[in-house]
Amino acid sequence: MPFVPVMLIDTHCHLDSEYFPEGADETLARARSAGVTGFVCVGVGSLAQTEAALGLAARRSDVWATVGVHPHDAATLDDQLEAALLRCAAAPRVVAIGEIGLDFHYDHSPRERQEEVFRRFVQLARQLKKPVVIHTRSAPDETLRILSEENAAEVGGLIHCFSENKAFAQRALDLGFDLSFSGIVTFKRATDIQEVAAWAPADRILVETDSPYLAPVPLRGKRCEPAHVLHTARFVAGLRGVSLEQLAEQTSQNAQRRLGVSAVLN
Ligand SMILES: [Zn+2]
Ligand SMILES: [Zn+2]
To answer: Which ligand gives the minimal distance to the CA of 103?
Structure first.
């Protein structure tokens, strides 16, 4: 077995062929050698991408999947796609519904439609008793209001790629949502996010890559892949004054509790 310095779980990565045309196997192998022992592969974008995420998870014991409609794609959801996604969402290796939420920065879909689809999938998560993975950008109050009105606390979940401030973080924690930090936390100007990463309760934090986006410092600008979660974890450990090993163990336990994923050594 290769030397594994730490055991980390990447709680949010996109691994479909659109981003990794050479296939996911080598990418996963590199991450495993870097100590990443679990991958939550996000199945959004199109039915084909959702099915690809499910396929990856079905074939590998250290990969799990989520199913949802990204707010960018809310306008593309019709009855037929919704029915297909509902079938996918019930699969046993689907550990969460998402990413879902609101993105009022890009506004790729009309805001009203984003809100409808977001509510619909929180309701689905409650029916399936699965946690939700939230994407939120430039819509903090609207996101928290919908989570609250739709009783998302019943299933809880996580705020992925956390990029809000401490006041938002406190409200999200109160609603039963953990905070998942991506490479953004390592960026020089991300002082609000760094403050939250240093302060948040140890049992409520997670780390992720959001591959292929947002590679952490010192790899900024490169295609991000799950192995890079190590840099984010090391940086967050530094902010919190704990060792990388402690941070890895804590966040892996948190991921296991929140998503039911457990580290598997291959
Ligand atoms: Zn996102
Ligand atoms: Zn994502």
So the answer is: 1
Q: Which residues are paired to 100 by β-bridges? A: 134
Q: Cα-flanking dihedrals φ and ψ of residue 182, to 5°?
A: -105, -170
| Largest pairwise CA distance in the chain | 51
How much is the pTM? 0.95
CA of 135 to the centre of ligand 1 (A): 5
Contact between residue 263 and residue 251 where contact means Cβ atoms under 8 Å apart: no
Q: Give me ligand 2 centre to Cα 1, in Å.
A: 31
Interatomic CA distance for residues 147 and 132, integer angstroms: 10
Name the residue type at position 20: F
CA angle 40-45-46, nearest 5°? 115
For residue 8 the two structure tokens come to 């980390």
Cα(63) to ligand 2 centroid in Å equals 16
Tokens 């991921």, residue located: 255
Site of tokens 């996109």: 14
Helices (H) and strands (E) in the chain, counts: 9, 8
Q: What is the pLDDT of residues 78-130, one digit of tens each?
A: 999 999 999 999 999 999 999 999 999 999 999 999 999 999 999 999 999 99
Ligand nearest to the CA of 41: 2
CA distance 25 to 6: 20
